[in-house]
Specification:
The structure holds 2 protein chains of 2 kinds.
Chain A: H1 14-20, H2 22-25, E1 46-50, H3 67-75, E2 87-89, H4 99-110, H5 134-138, E3 141-146, E4 149-154, E5 160-164, E6 181-187, E7 190-196, E8 216-225, E9 228-236, E10 245-253, H6 272-276
Antiparallel strand pairs in A: 1-3, 1-10, 2-10, 3-4, 4-5, 6-7, 7-8, 8-9, 9-10
Chain B: H1 2-10, H2 17-33, E1 51-55, H3 88-99, H4 101-104, E2 125-129, E3 133-138, E4 144-148, E5 165-171, E6 174-180, E7 200-209, E8 212-220, E9 229-237, H5 255-258
Parallel strand pairs in B: 4-5
Antiparallel strand pairs in B: 1-2, 1-9, 2-3, 3-4, 5-6, 6-7, 7-8, 8-9
Classes of the chains: A alpha+beta, B alpha+beta.
Amino acid sequence: MKNIIHDGPAILPVAFLLLCHPAVAQNPTKPWSPAVTADGQPDLQGFWTAEVAGTYDLTDPRGGEIVVEEIAQASKGIVRKHNPSRIVDPPDGKIPYLPWAEAKHRDLAMHAENPTKPEHIDTQNRCLPDGPLRDLLHGAFRIVQAPGYVVFLGEENYGFRSVPLDSRPHLGKDIALWMGDPRGHWEGNTLVIDVTNLNGKPWLDMIGNFYGQSSHFLERLTPVGPDTFDYEVTVEDPSVYTRPWKLKARFKRAHPDGYEFLEDACHEGEQSADKMLLPADVANKPKN
Amino acid sequence: MPALNSLLASRKGVGTNGSKLVAGFYLLAQVVAGQSPALPRTADGKPDLSGFWQTLNTAAWDIQDHRDQKDVPAGQGVVVGNEIPYQPWALAKKKENFEKRATADPEAKCFLPGVPRITYMPFPFQIVQTSKELTVLYEYAHAFRAIHVDGTKHPADHMDWWLGDSRGHWEGDTLVVDLADFNDRTWFDRAGNFHSDALHVVERYALLDADHIEYAATIEDPKVFTRPWKMNMVLYRHREKNFQILEYECYGFEHEKYYP
């Protein structure tokens, strides 16, 4: 097993943390003070979805269009409307991969439309957990708060994150998790979640942007209005990236009060991934 | 009230002083009403089931009495009276399931295991409790379900769900959960005990003390059984410091091979 680096936010340069601070990064007009829960947490409960939802490509989100169709259109010279990259740092909007990681990402992206090997298929198509970050950008989710915990429940592709708000240490380094090991705390109205113990398996989007087993996420959720919160996450992993990078997204309320999730069993009966493989590779397809 | 104060002091994870005061008021009310005051309670006075729970029985392998087999610990069953009142055809089907259990068990395919089976699988689960809902987070396959306690009803039409639809209410200090809207594809255990999509389950959660829940599930399915029957077991609270749910991403797909 590879070593998993266990670093809290302290390893990030102080200047970089300042850049992430909501006072610098967020709404300059007027501060919003949300209601508080019975145990005194700012109340983020309810259903949410990203303003530009979906995880087609972090650097070129499509706002609900299907990436494979767009790739085909692009090959015919059809220019489509771009949404800005979700990556806000570095300023070029690109994930600052190390050369080996850039090569791996390019290979995965090139095969996103026509996978020739099982490992070309997006982990989400296998109904494997989305991992932190993608679980929020993917589709609607729900936040439930109870004393000592903030819980994220996914509407699609069954999954949850249960974030303890105490100051307990992270798990031991030999425990690696699809959803990582989250530790939350409130800084004013901002929920800060420090995520370690990632297993590095879930893709970040449909075209194979990825992180590693040593990656460390620092997420910040800041309510900026009754129906809006801003999300930013800093990802750092010197074994994958040349420098830390930061993603931002705005979230809106997704469903009215009283809405209930339908069950979304995913793995049960899942066949699409194997159908994506080319016939020549059917012999190699994994048994499900 | 020194006795009440010590009870309050013994409560854990309740949050603010204000909520403790409210809880204290409810405790006093419960003493007056003759209810057990020793149970942990939420700010709204309900028994506090939040925390990490797990069974310590062998029902995952076989809900009935069974001897040891390879990779199967012997166990006293959890079925009251030990007999499951199958209709004749269904008893034959159960025996067939048992013979084919290595491949036919939905759990072997990593499918969601249904309720109450998911309760007594050998994985912990977390209950997150609010006044309107108890959300149950299972370590097995990141499954979760909402037990609505807000007076809402089952969906009007039949839903074909792996974990069913859970609607709860409090009867005194007991959480009673009515489950319907199941599919016919889950089993009760690895021994082939099964049901149809007419399955109706009533769960009961009653705290025995702060760390034990008396759990019962009444099983009704007129397509398969001749009468309702019942399982009883105890849920144990994980008291380990910093205990948390980890993951069992069931190996229904060879993810270790393709996503190393």
